[in-house]
Amino acid sequence: MKRFKSVKLASILGIIGNLFLLIIKAIIGFFTNSQAMIADSFNSAGDIISSVMTFIGNKIASKPKDDDHNLGHGKAEYIYSMLISILMILMSFKIFKDSFLSILDNGKYDFSWWLVVVCIITILVKIALYVYTNMLYKKYNNLLIKANSKDHINDCVITFFNLLSCLLSLKGIYFFDGVVGIGISVWIIYTSVKIFKESYDILMDKSISEETKNKVFDIINTHDEIKKVIHFNSTPVGYKYQISFTIYVDGDLSTFKSHDIANKLEKEIDSKIQEIYLTVIHVNPIKIKKGK
């Protein structure tokens, strides 16, 4: 399936790109003792873990449904997205601590133009990865790719401030290096919590959005033979939803005719609404008062 193959390629590119950035950031960061660059290298390490988890989660989610998993394996995307967010939060605490201690100790570092070069390379690589993954997210609505896409653009912002701290050190302003490190950690926590919440909502079977529900009822309302709708329920199935509800039709209709209405409506909803994976409709008869 193109969706899963594209996510697989995105995760592989993420691993390669972030591994390259981790190596050059770590070498220059530890060589110059720049807390902002060291924090940025930890951020790249976290990105590698995220890309690996994206790869694994996507591989599991791509498996078709079987006897043990009747609705498929789509929720693996959200389990691994949640794991990514937890790891990013834990990593950010380490960055925050080291950066805060750096400010208290008035930590200085040895300026090197290599710091500037690494920042520029990072921004260029991350912009390229963001453009690619954001395109995939808009096309396939995959939360794993969304998490990676946001992470790439966040890294561009983070590295920009890292670059600014490098240039300020030329004027003897070193505290900003620690401030940037703290800013990086806070930003990672913020984005991680958002990803965690999105994953949590799906895993806890959050209901379909009102917008999508309204689309369903817009289709139902075009069928005059449907007199009433009750018991509307929705369940997340990977990145889509399974919905079920009960319709009431004229009790004088034949069993074949009433169920034919439901069958056609199921197919219409499934084909017209992208967010719907499966529609299940129960039919009940209702007594219709005939006019004179």
Task: Briefly characterize the structure.
The chain has 292 residues and is mostly helical.
Query: Looking at the structure, what is the overall shape?
Result: elongated
Q: What is the first-to-last residue Cα distance?
A: 57 Å
CATH class assignment of the largest domain: Mainly Alpha
Count of helical regions: 8
- Specify the CATH homologous superfamily of the largest domain: Cation efflux protein transmembrane domain
Approximate helicity band: 55-70%
| Uncertain stretches of 5 or more adjacent residues | none
Order of helices and strands: HHHHHHHEEHE
- Rg computed from alpha carbons, rounded to a whole number of angstroms: 26 Å
Strand content: 5-15%
* CATH architectural category of the largest domain: Up-down Bundle
Could you tell me the CATH topology label of the largest domain. Alpha-lytic protease prodomain-like
Q: What characterizes the major β-sheet?
A: 3 strands, mixed
How many structural units, i.e. domains? 2
Mean pLDDT: 81
Instruction: Briefly note the structural class of the backbone.
Output: mainly alpha
Strand order of the largest sheet: 1-2-3
Number of strands: 3
